[in-house]
Structure prediction request, 939 residues.
Amino acid sequence: MSGTETQNYAVIGKSVPKIDGRDKITGAARYTADLKFPNMLFGKILTSPHAHARILSIDTSEAEKIPGVKAVVTHKDAPTLKYGISPARWDENIFCIDTVKFVGDKVAAVACIDEETCYKALAAIKVEYEVLPAVLDPLRARDEDQPQIHPEFERNINAEIHQDFGDIEEAFRAAHYVRTDTFVGNRTYQTPIEPHTATSMWDGDKLTVYSSTQSPHYFQYYIAREFGLPMGNVRVLKTYVGGGFGGKLEPTGLEFGGAVLAKITGRPVKMFYDRAEMFAHNRGRHRQYMTLTTGVDEKGKILGVHADFIMDGGAYTSLGIATAYYAGAMLTLTYEFDHFRFDMFRVYTNLPACGAQRGHGAPQPRYAFEAHLDNIAKHLGIDPMDIRILNARRPNTVTPNEFAVNSCEMKACLEQARVLSGWDEKKGKLPKGRGIGVATGSFVTGAGYPIYRTDLPHAAAMIKVGEDGTSATLYTGAVDIGQGSDTILCQMAAEAMGYTYEQMKIVAADTETTPHDFGAYASRQTLMSGAAVKQAGEEVKKQLLEVAAEELDFPVSDLDVRSGVVFSPADPNVTMPFADVARRHFVTRGPLVGKGSYTPPKLGGTFKGAPVGTSPAYSFAAQVSEVQIDEETGEVTVLDVWDVHDCGTVINPSLLHAQVHGALFMGMGESIWEEVKFDDKGRILNPNLSEYRLPTALDMPRIHSSLVDSYEPAGPWGVKEVGEGATLPTMGCLRNAIFDAMGVSVNSLPLGYEKVWRALKDKREEAGSQKAG
Amino acid sequence: MGTITDKQGVQRYIVDLMVNGDPHTVVIKGNTLLVNVLRDELDLTGTKKGCETGDCGSCTILLDGKPVDACLVLAAEADGCEITTIEGVAQHGELDRLQKSFLDNAAVQCGYCSPGMIMSAKALLTRNPNPSEHEVRKAIGGNLCRCTGYVNIVKAVLAVAEEEAR
Prediction:
């Protein structure tokens, strides 16, 4: 459907160049750290060197004496209201009051005339600590003998989830085969290349914060709350953002601490994290222990699944309550089964807090489930591709946890991946050391409910056509963090208005000048912000055609507008340039403005945690990867990856495939190399980009990104998500390819060379001992 | 290189830099990094800082034609050198073919690594106008990108090379 429909669109469905591309390749694009303000100071935060300690005293007097130091602040100078991004668990303070809870926790901050003076000042602050025993092992965090991190959370339980759908016991009783496997997910970090920066300034009672943020709205809401300001007195805006991937979704010490320092000094204060501080702030992927039990019939049809998980939340909640729910909720999407139980403990430890990283909560459980399913297929002697096609979700179905799925081309994705990858020619026929694996994924197209409870629309937009009609400006709260929302929303605006992309301008993500939008997370903007933009564009079009009807003396119902020209489908002689009509509108009626907003329908069930995972639409994807394993070293070389996506109608094919490339790349990094590691004192061992190993250009396989035809009724023009979905299958897909190549299962991420080598060694020794025995 | 000593007894160096064809003289401390002179003194903020430890390549510039991480070069070391930053790649508002190719091939997402990527690729194409895919990957191997999986970046560089070969 989408294939033919796309042909009829004038602007969408085309790979127009990015609206901000030129600025970004000439060095003209200013990111937050590039901004300078008159009289600006520089600020840094003093952090805890201990994983868990009581603060006995803080002496700032020596620091204050250093020339160029303008302010030194601690909790005594700042609001002490606890904050967080999950309203269920506000557990963080701007500066620690009694205890520090991880290496990197915020203790004090300084504002100075330059960066160098900041470091001198930080070194001169004397903090006396009483070091406390720390909780570093999430599996032991709930034990009676472990220290309490937050007094109000007994046994360090941050969240406990027990969900039961259908009758899992009965499903297992009826099953031909019931299998249990345990897997471990790794702690990873989003690692945007742009470090977090925020510059805060006050004008009387009004606070302005320039921040590298994924959501000016949530920042505005939480900053206003913390400082007791009306939201109208807090302006949060971004310039260009150098990537986020979930790590820039919540305000940090840079915004809160910067606002305190700016207030006290009366000057703009630029705060920034260096790379090590970014790792300490973290909010990346949780380490997660995942036990899965699944019952299948003799053909491999899944009857029921029990997921029993524990996740290491770190010292604070961050967005982790949602992560914990997502971990189970999203397991029900790609395959159909009726019975599902989900048990989860998210525990506190004295390690950096974890939050939402691309694919939010879903990728590791997906890895575990896809590996588990291959184990089941192997036991039953079924081809891994066949067992997936057998169980693949169908359109217009409902998951056991009550997610309504409209469009769903899961089966078509798998079948296409089978053909493109040459699965049938390769499976079981590849030379030694070579293997092929398959996995699936599905992701929300925007969260059905916002992070805090509110009745605000999820997205809003406004379009102002220039007075002479030669340009139009889209005002949207949507946040372009690199994924290209500014571009595709301008395409959508132009399509809806009957205008051209080249004439579009955009003002985005500024709480003062643009209409409200929740921001860039949960893959929501193409559908949700897009729906608001479409409505705004249609409102412009309606008004424009009314004026055109008057000017042309022709019935409005017989007029249309496309690519900047008003015309009549009935009479080819009736035509008038959009610009001329728009100008007449301004002269006769005032500004030509359209507005729109979007609120999703009520979604999901009524059980505890039911909102998490609801969405107006879900994307689906299948991946096949082919790997080469070096038996001597365990080295994994990924040769090819085929990603086949069901993401609805495509607005910009180039940008869409680029999202797949990036999501897959990130999943691959987490699969093989990336892991934040700690010593026995809770200090990060690799808080830098040489030892926290991101894939380089030399590590990447050939990537083949393709699509299946699909149309999503809940989305404007039939769109749904792509940005996070392609991260989901990758880890399981690579695990399964290694399993196929060598017959060994690596049950923890990352599937590093050493782990593969050890698994091969164990297998050899086992075979040797069996022979000997 | 001239020096002056300030009232605290700290020695400052008078450094001459030719940046994108423009002569600049700056007075800096011995520990001042070149990347900070470019960004803070000359307001050439196209050169990005991502790690300040030479790992990410965001601050890649050409120093006498060679690609270097400007965060690993002391400004004093660059005295008398010719420097090209991303701002010096387009000439009179006309994009370089490499820049055009980055746009045409959707090789830019967040854009934070793009200046460094373009500088590394430019250095490669200057010394080797017809590189293999592996040579392209090697040339940008020290430039980390978190958005693109490098797919379209490699494509963009190769497209320029192919155009050159024709």
User: Anything to note?
Assistant: Chain A has 19 helices and 28 strands. The longest helix of chain A spans residues 525-552. The mean pLDDT of chain A is 97. The two ends of chain A are 62 Å apart (CA to CA).
